[in-house]
Amino acid sequence: MNAATPLGHRVGAIVIGASAGGVEVLSTLLPALPETIRAAVFVVLHQPPDRQSILAEIFSRKCKLPVREAEDKEPIEPGTIYFAPPNYHLLIEAGARIALSVDDLVQFSRPSIDVLFHSAADTYRERLLGILLTGWNEDGAAGLLAVHAVKGITIVQDPQSAEAPVMPQAAIRMHSPDFVLHPRAIADLLHGLEPAPATSGTSPARAAPAP
Amino acid sequence: MSQEFQIELPLLLEAIYLKYHYDFREYANASLKRRLSAALVRFGCRTLSQLQQRILHEPAIFPILLDYLTVQVTEMFRDPNYFKALREHVVPLLRTYPSLKIWVAGCSTGEEVYSLAILLREEGLLSRSLIYATDINPQALQRAEAGVFDIDRIPAFTESHRRSGGHSSLSDYYTAAFGRAVIDKSLKKHIVFSDHSLATDSVFAEVQLVSCRNVLIYFNRELQDRALGLFADALCRKGFLGLGSKESLRFTALAGAFADVSREDRIFQKKDRA
Ligand SMILES: C[S@@+](CC[C@H](N)C(=O)[O-])C[C@H]1O[C@@H](n2cnc3c(N)ncnc32)[C@H](O)[C@@H]1O
């Protein structure tokens, strides 16, 4: 990537995948997203299939950005955080719309992080930022590789900081991510995403990721 | 997905349409692509063009591909609250009709239809009901008609049935034998299974209730509008429409044609034309 381009200019969408221990990490990351961001944010958090849809409500209270549970064929709005509904895969459809599906489980999961990451990589390509967090299974590792393959930016939670290191470790085995970071550092990076006012010239958003 | 895949996809769908008259051209692309990638592996093809070549010239393998193009994931009393809401908001009005016709569109292997039939039996309505159960996948329809389910699935079905407000025992409606649960003939008597596509066929009856769950999510908006148009035409005055728990009319052209009955449970009622 071109180090001269601030991440915030480049990122058209952010996809985040998390499993065991994910709520806590997301509570650090999502509130850090600046109000002015233009990128849409899609989140898959593994949950029991019969769980009520409460994530959007919980995170609405903590975040500056609007938070919603994704609806089928909904037009994607910039600066909005979308959660996958329990028991549905979340995909990005042509024409900047969301799609849901009840296809078979992928990596024992529905929603599956791989499914979201693959379809988002397909749509946003190098404008995608993919973040994979804590979890006990390997969902998301192949998806993050797909983000990498289209020259998107990949971030993996430092396994040492993860309640469940299996998921980040699996991702790191498959490719060498642009960043491996503690949740706090990912939050800082997200916070710095917007083309920043002069004072934040040294924010991580301006640092070039490893090639 | 490679650029070539994007080019080949519409070509493949066109070929399937011309040769087999199955119209997947207006299906939502993202999940279709995923399933076609899996089909490539299954058929040992490197590209969709290769797959197209085989599909065109080896009709015997088309049924296998059809199982990738359509998604047969279903269960009995899926989303128990939906069925509960039917009991609460729809059944009282259905009681006012001397005879009932109901359309389950995209019935897959039958779990939803039998759930509805059991509900109607419990509410004392099945004896005067006829349920049309339609799908485009002939293998699924065959299994639906047979009404034989793996016994391992029954405990979950039983629990969902109970949560749907079921006031009889699910075991009243099947016979268990050899690891299978066979659905009672007395339910099947009220169901007609048939091949019907929401993408290419037209309305065939007037009905009081349409239940079409987790089918529209596989369509793009234009095709959703077509299917919903069929439902609006098939429904009698003030007829009911039930959708999947994450499907809505909000982003469709038919949003104005229906009123909410139970927003949460995705049950709608056809409005009188102004
Ligand atoms: C995920 S299943 C839903 C089964 C059931 N309604 C439920 O909610 O449990 C989707 C079904 O829609 C059927 N389907 C797909 N395209 C269709 C079309 N154009 N017309 C009718 N049915 C279709 C598929 O074959 C499949 O059986």
TrEMBL record, chain A:
| Known catalytic reactions | [protein]-L-glutamate 5-O-methyl ester + H2O = L-glutamyl-[protein] + methanol + H(+)
Instruction: Provide the alphabetized UniProt keywords.
Output: Chemotaxis, Hydrolase
Q: What are the annotated GO cellular component locations? A: cytoplasm
Q: Which Gene3D superfamilies match?
A: Methylesterase CheB, C-terminal domain
Which stretches make up the CheB-type methylesterase domain? 14-187
Please list the GO terms describing molecular function: phosphorelay response regulator activity; protein-glutamate methylesterase activity
Q: Which InterPro entries match?
A: CheB_C, Sig_transdc_resp-reg_Me-estase
Q: Name one GO biological process term.
A: chemotaxis
For the keyword DNA-binding, the answer is: no
Q: What is its EC number?
A: 3.1.1.61
Please name the catalytic residues of this protein: S19, H46, D139
- What's the protein name? protein-glutamate methylesterase
UniProtKB/TrEMBL annotation, chain B:
Task: Note the InterPro entries from the entry.
Answer: Bact_Chemotaxis_MeTrfase, CheR_C, CheR_MeTrfase, CheR_N, SAM-dependent_MTases_sf
SUPFAM superfamilies annotated for this entry? S-adenosyl-L-methionine-dependent methyltransferases
Which keywords does the record carry? Methyltransferase, Transferase
Q: Where is the CheR-type methyltransferase domain?
A: 1-249
**UniProt keyword Plastid, yes or no:** no
Output one GO MF annotation. S-adenosylmethionine-dependent methyltransferase activity
What's a single GO BP term from this record? methylation
Q: What is this protein called?
A: CheR-type MCP methyltransferase
- Write down the species: Panacagrimonas perspica
